[in-house]
Amino acid sequence: MIIEDKEFGEVIVRKSPLARNIKFSISTSGRLAMSVPNYTSDFLAKRFLNTNRKMIREKLPIKDPHEQRARDYQKKQLMKKAKEYLPYRLEYYAKLYGYKYDKCRLTHANTRWGSCSSNRTISLNIGLMKVPEALRDYVILHELAHLNHMNHSRDFWAEVSKHDHNYKVHERKLKLFSPGV
Ligand SMILES: [Zn+2]
User: What are the residue ranges in the chain where pLDDT is below 70?
Assistant: First the structure.
């Protein structure tokens, strides 16, 4: 549920059977989020928001509503670009070097550029559309190499270096960027 609040903009209310009490946090979009127990009525959630206004204002870095919407828009555009590019680039390299993966997933986590799961799903962060092509390709080759080595062992890096001779430079340069949108 979303509460439209005059001061905080859109407030995300997440009902959870596991929540014991009401907790406030900041969502990745910079919106205020409340997690509440399942049985909490909308009336009660709003009342709780009102009684905690001062604490929220002082403690939580909420983005102003205008910024929240700008970020939503930016993320949507990035997702669109990523959809038209990343799965095909992954497929291209997989074919070129003889890798077999099962699925390609697009993510927008704040912390990682990509991952490879044991069921051979490769996840790529849409934030890759904002970094130089060489770094983007490096992440793709890195995740593909995980299909053969589910760790960062010497054998793993040897395989990465076969397809990206400059992988050390790329790994280092990638740290200058943040995967968050
Ligand atoms: Zn890795």
Answer: none
